[in-house]
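Sample entry (195 residues):
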Amino acid sequence: MKIQRPWEPRINFAVPKTVDYSTNICGTETFSLRFRIFIWSLVINYCSLVIFLSGCSVPNKVVDIYFYKNAELASVERERPTVELPLVIAIDQLMAGPNEQESARGFTTEIPQGTRARNVDIEGDTAIIDLNSRLHDFTGNVVDAKRLVAQIVHTATSVRGIKQVILKLQGSDQFTIGSENYLIDHPLTIDDVKN
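Predicted structure, serialized as tokens:
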């Protein structure tokens, strides 16, 4: 307790009344701490969603599809929607073959017409691609078979994070293709399909 000395002036510090901002014009309690935290979390989540969707809508996202031009492996770029995995889109586009414009420019494919991916999966850095039975229609020799496999491996590994490919035919990961029974029975990398 402070002792008031006679020679010290008496000063009365009036404490202003605190204004209660916790009530709105209707007199109900609002803007509590929890409510404000909730509002800010909604705002932050909304902004994050807007930023995410803006990033997804960038039009320049493409996948590389590998065909042959003048007997050499060459890639074409295809725009991709962002609702599917790039690998799924790339393999589907590869199986569909060159479009009209690409065919007019001399692009060809070794993959038999009607070949489709029954399933496309990713485990770590490995793409697992299960093809349908139309691949049995392939009748090329060993060189042609290697060219076919090279298209698939190059297309799959052009997708970020994919280093190797396991090919399956109707669920089997050991099968042969072509007139000379080219055997596919292990994961394939770019080095495996080099000319």
